[in-house]
Task: structure prediction
Amino acid sequence: MRDKIEVLIDEEKLQSRIKELAKEIKNDYGDEEVVFVSVLKGAIFFTVDLMKDYDGDAIIDVVRVSSYVGENSTGIIELKVPLKEENVKDKNIILVEDIVDTGRTFNYLVDYVKQMNPKSIKTCVMLDKPSRRVVDFKADYVGFSIEDLFVVGYGLDYDENYRNLPYIGYIKN
Ligand code: IMP
Ligand code: MG
Result:
């Protein structure tokens, strides 16, 4: 199956951008502790590498939502693994996602986290597809802005496949 994939962002470029993002975040938070909340499952790979490059106090938590079937967003977001209020309240939350597409997932998650009274909330995405927005949303930290392509790899899947590719690619027609 891998032979059908064209590389869009190679491993080296991806990893060096993640190091830059980690530095950018550290500059903003300094000595304050941050909580990286990884949006399962897609953002796991990105979150782990971002945290390993983060030279400061950080903890990890996870949340799981689902909204996507195949290539088409259903628009309905279901909370599958919630956060605990005690892990969010008065903390500096950074929501970490693999990709922002329509913006619905993040829009939902930011509201959800805000209800738990964090000290602050910011969003960090590996990839952004601004041309696909349905709801207004702008992430605070963006790895790469890409054109409207269905991408896979480095956590991103097509029906659960390809998540383990170390680069970002797209399926050749
Ligand atoms: P949104 O709610 O439309 O912004 O969609 C976000 C979710 O859709 C992401 O977390 C991904 O799981 C999925 N998604 C959007 N675009 C792609 C893509 O190009 N490849 C794989 N998954 C995608
Ligand atoms: Mg996702």
Remarks:
- The CA atoms of residues 56 and 85 lie 23 Å apart.
- The first strand starts at residue 5 and ends at 9.
- The mean pLDDT is 94.
- The radius of gyration is 15 Å.
